[in-house]
Amino acid sequence: MLDFNWELSRTLILQQNASAYMEKDKISLSLLTALDAKVMARLSARFSYSTAYESQVQLAEESFDTLRKSRWCTICDCSYPSTRIR
């Protein structure tokens, strides 16, 4: 994990946050870089970007196809639209 704030001037602060998690076959990285600018006494603006990487993303064993949700009933072959996906 890496966290630092660098005050470039009284009105500009650069912030960097990074974290990494590694196992035998999985890697997860997260990065955030931000520039905070003080515009007025009570107003500031932030320009930032965030990046994330995961080597293995497996959400579920089955794919969820939303285009097939309007198929006819697969339980009894009636004409009622089914919400069940095979």
**Count, helices:** 0
Helix-strand sequence = EEEE
Which percent band covers the strand fraction? over 45%
Please list the strands of the largest sheet in the order they lie side by side.
1-2-3-4
What number is the mean pLDDT?
78
| Biggest sheet descriptor | 4 strands, antiparallel
Number of strands: 4
Oligomer: single chain
What global shape is seen?
Answer: elongated
**Which ranges are low-confidence, i.e. pLDDT below 50, for 5 or more consecutive residues?**
none
Question: Can you put this structure into words, describing what you see?
Answer:
With about 90 residues, the chain is mainly beta. It contains no helices and 4 strands. The chain has a 4-stranded antiparallel β-sheet with strand order 1-2-3-4, with no helix packed on it. A hairpin with a 4-residue loop joins strand 1 (about 1-5) and strand 2 (about 10-20). It is elongated and about 50 Å long. The protein starts with a strand and ends in a 32-residue tail after the last strand.
